[in-house]
Design a protein that fits this description.
alpha+beta; 2 domains; two-stranded antiparallel sheet
C-alpha cells in the first residue's frame, strides 16, 4: 500500500505534465519552507557562535574547578585537606582565593569593587596573562603590593598601568564595634599600585573586578593564613576530578566546573535559543500551511484520477495516503534544500566573515561568529518534517472517492 501510494505521489510530482497555477503554488510552498529552514539554521548557528565566543573568554578567567563552602562565605584549609586533594591523580594544581566587596579610592574618586585576592599559582591555573590589555599581570613586585584592574574599572577611575599614584583599598573591620563618631576607624586600609588592566569582555569582570595579592586581602579582611573564600583547581580530567573531590570533601563543600560557575549565563543563553527556536518554528508553521491550499487545489485537479483509482479498487485510505505523501514530499524537498543552503551560508560566513558587526572595528570580533552544530540540523529537519506532516494531513483527512466524483 505504501509503495503504491509513494509511486503514484512521486509520478504526480515529477512526471512530465502541463505547467499550471497549481504547480506554481506547489513550488512556491516548497521554496517558502526552504527559506525558513535556511533561516533557522543560520540564526541558531549564529547564536551558537556567540555562545562559544563567550565560553572561550570565561574559560580563560575561570578555573576548571572551584571549591566553595556550602554554608558561609569562607572556610579554613588545612594542609591535610590540600594533600588529600592533590592525591587525586587528575588534580594538577591548587590556588587559594579570597573574594569580597571593598571600596577603593583614587584621586578623590571612590568606587565599590569585587576584590579578588590571589596567590602565585593563580596565573598558572587561569590564562589571566593572555587577557592583559595594558601593563602586566603582577600582584606583588617584592617591595610593593600591586593590582590588576578590569579595563572598564580602570577607565572609570581614570587610571592606567604606568600611573605612580597609589590606590587605597578600604574594608570594614571584621570584629571591631562600629564607632559612630569617627567613621574612619571602622575600616582597615591598604595601599597598592596598579600594574596592569585586563579584559574578559564581560561586564561583571571588566567593570568591577580588582586582582590583588592574597596576603593584602587577608590583612584587609582580617583573615588568618588558612582562611579562604574558594580553592581554584586545574585538572587533567575535569569530570573525574570533580567526582573524586566531592567524595573526599563530603557535603560541606561545593565543587563547581566552569559550566556551573557560570550557570546563570548559560541558562539565559539556552532560554534565548529556545525562544528563538519557538519563534522560528511558528514562522515555519505558517510556511508549511501554504501547502494546504496547494494540496487542496491538487486534489480537485486530480478528481478524475481519484475516480479512476476508485474504480480500480483503491480504498479511501490509499487515496488519502497518495496525497499525504505528495504534500509531505514537497515540504521535505524544501526542508532538505533549506538545510543545505543554510549550512553553505554558515560555512561561508564562518570562513570569510562576509556579514560584519557594525563597521567591523567597534566590537570584540569583526564579523558575526558562526558555529554549525549537528544537533541543530537534526532538530530543524525533524521540526520541519513533523509540521509538514501535520499541515498536509488537514486537506487530505476527508479526501474520499465519493467526494470527488462527478
Amino acid at each position: 500500500m505504501v509503495r503504491v501510494a509513494l509511486k503514484i505521489a512521486w509520478r504526480y510530482l515529477f512526471a512530465k505534465k502541463r505547467f499550471n497555477a497549481i504547480h506554481v503554488i506547489t513550488r512556491i510552498s516548497s521554496i517558502a519552507v526552504g527559506v525558513v529552514t535556511a533561516a533557522m539554521i543560520c540564526v541558531l548557528s549564529v547564536m551558537n557562535g556567540f555562545g562559544v565566543m563567550v565560553e572561550n573568554t570565561f574559560s580563560q578567567f575561570d578555573p576548571e574547578l572551584r571549591i566553595t563552602a556550602t554554608n558561609g562565605k569562607s572556610f579554613h584549609v588545612s594542609p591535610a585537606m590540600k594533600d588529600s586533594i592533590m592525591a587525586i591523580p587528575e588534580v594538577n594544581q591548587i590556588s587559594e582565593c579570597i573574594e569580597e566587596i571593598a571600596l577603593i579610592e583614587f584621586e578623590e574618586k571612590q568606587m565599590p569593587v569585587q576584590l579578588m585576592g590571589v596567590d602565585s599559582v593563580f596565573n598558572s591555573i587561569t590564562s589571566i596573562s593572555q587577557l592583559i590589555t595594558d601593563g602586566q599581570y603582577q600582584v606583588y613586585d617584592g617591595a610593593f603590593d600591586r593590582a590588576v584592574l578590569g579595563q572598564q574599572l580602570a577607565w572609570k577611575l581614570g587610571i592606567g598601568a604606568h600611573f605612580s599614584s597609589g590606590i587605597k583599598v578600604y574594608a570594614p573591620k571584621r570584629f571591631a564595634k562600629v564607632n559612630m563618631v569617627r567613621q574612619d576607624v571602622n575600616f582597615n586600609t591598604e595601599t597598592c599600585f596598579i600594574a596592569g588592566t585586563f579584559a574578559v569582555n564581560q561586564q561583571k569582570y571588566d567593570e568591577s573586578t580588582m586582582l590583588v595579592d592574597i596576603d593584602l586581602t587577608r590583612r584587609l579582611l582580617e583573615f588568618d593564613s588558612t582562611e579562604v573564600s574558594s580553592l581554584l583547581i586545574s585538572t587533567s580530567n575535569t569530570d573525574n576530578a570533580q567526582e573524586a573531590i566531592k567524595q573526599v570533601l563530603g557535603d560541606g563543600y561545593n565543587v563547581h566546573n566552569r559550566y556551573e560557575q557560570q550557570k546563570t549565563f548559560y541558562d539565559v543563553l539556552n532560554v534565548e535559543k529556545l525562544l528563538t527556536t519557538i519563534l522560528l518554528a511558528f514562522i515555519l508553521l505558517i510556511a508549511t500551511f501554504n501547502s494546504i491550499g496547494a494540496l487542496s487545489m491538487l486534489i480537485i485537479d486530480k478528481k478524475d484520477d481519484i475516480h479512476t483509482l476508485s474504480c480500480l479498487g483503491a480504498s479511501d485510505q490509499l487515496i488519502r495516503r497518495i496525497f499525504l505523501l505528495e504534500g509531505w514530499i514537497v515540504n521535505a524537498i524544501g526542508a532538505i534544500c533549506g538545510v543545505i543552503i543554510g549550512v553553505i551560508l554558515c560555512l561561508i560566513q564562518q570562513h570569510y566573515g562576509i556579514i560584519k558587526l557594525g563597521n567591523g572595528s567597534e566590537y570584540i570580533i569583526s564579523a558575526y561568529p558562526v558555529v554549525v552544530q549537528a544537533w541543530d540540523i537534526v532538530l530543524v529537519t525533524a521540526t520541519v518534517l513533523i509540521l509538514s506532516l501535520i499541515s498536509v494531513w488537514i486537506p487530505v483527512r476527508k479526501c474520499k472517492a465519493n467526494n470527488t466524483r462527478k
